[in-house]
Specification:
The chain has 284 residues and is of the alpha+beta class. It has helices spanning 13-35, 110-117, 121-138, 143-147, 150-166, 185-235, 238-253, 276-283, and strands spanning 36-39, 43-49, 52-53, 61-64, 70-75, 79-88, 94-105, 171-182, 259-262, 272-275. Helix 3 packs antiparallel against helix 5 (150-166). Mean pLDDT is 78; it is low at 278-284.
Length: 284
Amino acid sequence: MDIDAEPRPVVTSRGITKGLVVVPVTLVLIWLIASVRTVPPAHVGLSITLGSVSNTALPSGIHLLNPLASVVLFNLKTQLLYTENSVPTQEGLNVELDVSILYHVEKDKVRDVYLALGEDFEKVLIIPELQSAVRGLTSEVSAKALYTSGRTEIHNKLVTELKEKLTPRGVVLEDVLLKGIKLPKQLTDAIELKAQAEQESARMEFVLSKERQEADRKKVEAAGISAFQKIVSEGISTQLLQWKGIEATEKLAASTNSKMVIMGNSKDSLPVLLSSSNTENTAA
């Protein structure tokens, strides 16, 4: 008998049973953990198992799926897509037009978007359609229209055309933003010079209009003065002047001051009244 030999562990039936129970429980926990999928808020997910895409989208929250399944997420929030476009105008000039669009993916068509366009649907569909629409519209308008009031018309046409292209594909267009337009320097200078000339012309027209109004005012004023003088001259007669002279003489004669009355040398002459002080000064 070997005294140095180590004792062998004794395996009981209870230990075997416990081990048989722990292994399945562990496998179940691993299966559950591997099956849990989380979809963030304002997102939907598509479950893909061995190349098969689920028919319904997964709403936000926690889901138990096949551990072999993967989940493709789609954002349902409003997305901003910015593009820089170098496009020709009606005159053949190249302008730089910065355009942004606001859009979101339609929830009920997420599966169709994924199957037809994939996850990079922006590069596959939205950006090419946007660039094509911008290029087509700018080629129909002048560069000055892009720089001034024509932007509203371009905006409305872009919205209409892009909605027709994107809505059937599951992408909802919210708005188109024309953020910036950069024209060639020569054209910008020409537009600014023309605008300055138009402003100067409008200013001169205002000055001329004001001068015309002032001339009309002076003409009316002169006509009024002339009419007044005519009325006055027609109303003054020799008899009236003689009568006014007699009235003045009577008032002077009725005063208490000493005076001298010198009669005219004709029947039409009015009397001249001199006070005593004036007479003394004359005599001296």
